[in-house]
Design brief:
With 391 residues, the chain is α/β, with parallel strands linked by helices. Helix content is 32%, strand content 16%. An 8-stranded mixed sheet has the order 3-2-1-4-5-6-7-8, sandwiched between helices.
Length: 391
């Protein structure tokens, strides 16, 4: 994809060519440039669309997930016909239609400490569109080790962040967040929700920063963290400094190779709203009850057990199991007095992992008759009651 612009590219990029900051030379820099997108979801969608349209010559997409119907509210790279397909396949076809001059590389695998360096190596810029801490720390460390700029973005509910890490001596992600938060302390977008247009805005900020880096023009967000509040429609920036004691990019780095990021971040991935365990813990799997077994007991009129909903109140407005009692997971420690330690308790949540955490916690406290509803209420909706909405 390198080399001078072709005849039709002059017309395609004509609005760039008349910009003094871009021109022919700048557009050829974009054509010669390469960007790896980690994630083809909410943030990766606008990134991919606008970088391809802008004429970035080589775009890599690393994503092992498939398109789900719940993605379409914000992941505008995909459409309804793509549901069930791999995101990389859907993305590659869409981008080819947008700009046939762009080369698209796809990596249909989870980014790990074993493959990250080989996947990232050779790209001019990495744009991080992930929503889980293990991958964020992995991408940051790999970028520092490979000396590649890391264009960062994150979104949650109505708020977004963006920055450029490890660029021209600037700070890296670990300078801002040296260690991940304790497991379960930060809910994911799937758990807390996200305004559909928010990833579009933050992703376009990332695309803008990426293009500026490739062009070598303007002032990037290196050394600054952009904070956006959609409800208040406000932007503000926070100054960042490189931490000379940073374990990765500091003067005497301790991290000189990629580590086990699942363990670093507590063994969980916050792209699943219910994931996470404390570092070093290996609790025995909680006893599970299938949705079929629960249905049989409810149909028989068995009411000798407590059906405990550990989701948030706003989730219960979407769907609920009849006869269940709501105590959100984070309120369990303060409301133990409402639970009978001798009674049988069946816990459920959205997908069965928050409830597994509650069952494990109650078991440690001496509750011996606790069950986790495998697959949560979403599996109940798929296998038992198709009229119940999934979310």
């Amino acid at each position: 994809m390198n080399g001078p612009l072709e005849k039709d590219e002059h017309l395609r990029y004509s609005r760039h060519l008349v910009l003094p900051e871009v021109g022919i030379a700048g557009q050829e820099k974009l054509k010669a440039g390469s960007v790896l997108l980690v994630g083809a979801g909410g943030l990766g969608s606008p990134l991919a669309l606008y970088l391809a349209a802008a004429g970035v010559g080589r775009i890599g997409i690393a994503d092992f997930d498939k398109v789900d119907l719940s993605n379409l509210q914000r992941q505008v790279l995909h459409d309804t016909s793509a549901v069930g397909r791999r995101k990389t396949e859907s993305a590659k076809e869409r981008l080819a239609r947008i700009n046939p001059h762009v080369r698209i590389d796809t990596f249909e695998e989870r980014l790990t400490s074993a493959n990250a360096l080989s996947i990232l190596k050779g790209y001019d810029v990495v744009a991080d569109g992930t929503d889980n801490f293990p991958t964020r720390y992995l991408v940051n460390d790999a970028c520092v080790l490979l000396d590649i700029p890391n264009v960062y973005g994150s979104v949650f509910r109505f708020e977004g962040q963006a920055s450029v890490f490890h660029y021209r001596g600037g700070p890296c992600y670990r300078c801002l967040y040296p260690e991940p938060p304790p497991p379960g302390m930060v809910p994911s977008c799937a758990e807390g929700g996200v305004l559909g247009v928010l990833p579009g805005l933050i992703g376009m900020v990332q695309a803008t920063e990426t293009i500026k880096i490739l062009l070598g023009k303007g002032e990037t967000l290196s050394g600054r963290l952009l904070l956006y509040d959609a409800l208040g429609m406000s932007f503000r920036t926070m100054k960042l400094r490189r931490n000379r004691a940073c374990s990765v990019c500091g003067d005497s780095p301790e991290v000189t190779a990629l580590v086990d990021y699942e363990e670093l971040c507590g063994g969980g991935r916050d792209d699943d709203p219910d994931s996470g365990e404390a570092p070093g813990e290996s609790p025995a799997p909680p006893r599970e009850m299938t949705v079929g077994e629960l249905k049989n007991r409810l149909d028989s009129g068995d009411r000798t057990f407590l059906l405990l909903d550990v989701r948030e109140p706003y989730e219960r407005e979407i769907s609920e199991l009849p006869g269940s009692t709501l105590i959100p997971m984070n309120e369990i420690p303060d409301r133990l007095g409402e639970l009978d330690g001798h009674a049988e308790i069946v816990c459920y949540c959205r997908t069965g992992i928050r409830s597994a955490r509650v069952v494990e916690y109650l078991s440690r406290l001496g509750f011996r008759k606790t069950w986790n509803l495998a697959g949560g209420i979403n599996r109940w909706a798929r296998e038992i009651d198709p009229n119940l909405p999934e979310y």
